[in-house]
Amino acid sequence: MTCQDTSTYQDIRYELTDRVLTLTINRPEQRNTVTYRVLDELIDAFRHAGEDEEVRAVVVTGAGRYFSAGTDLASRDGYNATADDFKPLRGGTRDVGGILAEIIYDLPKPVIAAMNGTAVGIGITMTLPMDVRIVAEGAKLGLPFTRRGIVPESCANFFLPRVVGIATAVEWATSGRLFGPDEALRAGLVSRVLPAAEVLPAAQALAREIAENAAPVAVALTRQLMWKLLEADHPRAANRLESLALRAVTGSPDTTEGITAFREKRPPRFTQRLADDLPDFYPWWNADE
């Protein structure tokens, strides 16, 4: 599928620095509420990120004081269910937020959510297939779907119980109540709570640490082993896949470089590319249509 020119995005910013891609939802006047155009541009941006060898890690944030106040309920391009010409799922058969979630889930690169302010609805659900979430002090968080007469989307019913456990997931999703960063931290939804001004720098610092020190093939394999093995029913499944991966990477240029750099006490210079050097068994999973 041909990707869009990233300079033509209207509602997100695409900024690549030091092999870290920062994607910013850029609708601050609308509290970064999500429309179909925002989703389309994020989908396209993540496809770019997956193909670009210069991208080693991705950070997602929001412009201004909000991460995202959820779906735009007033826009013709949002979820204005009271409009005469409104069509659920944009007239299609699949939730577009779920398509974005699947792309992030299968991405061979780590994704960090820099939740710089309030995040509700899809402002939370879009982050669930991301690997790390850092949230601002004082942010309001919530999943108010049932209070609007709808159900959680963006594959949240798959991801949320896996991230915070079934009891917390059901409580949050059925009550639709707001909760704060400290509760999110206790539940494991976020890994850190920081002053708002420190959220994006912290996320970018973590992304740079990965980009500068970790081999991209090893990162891709590790990320997908951990996510996909959540569905395994026995540790033997992990043993089989880990054994395949170890056989595939042992003796590779990046393994040799990683060990040599460690012995020589210098930063590694990894040269292998995802497009050329992922093992033949990758990807080993198949989604049901």
Automatic annotation (TrEMBL):
The organism sits in which domain of life? Bacteria
Molecular function (GO) terms for this protein are:
catalytic activity
CDD domains reported in the protein's UniProt record: crotonase-like
To which protein family does this belong?
A: Belongs to the enoyl-CoA hydratase/isomerase family.
The name this protein goes by in its record: Enoyl-CoA hydratase
Tell me which species this is from.
Frankia canadensis
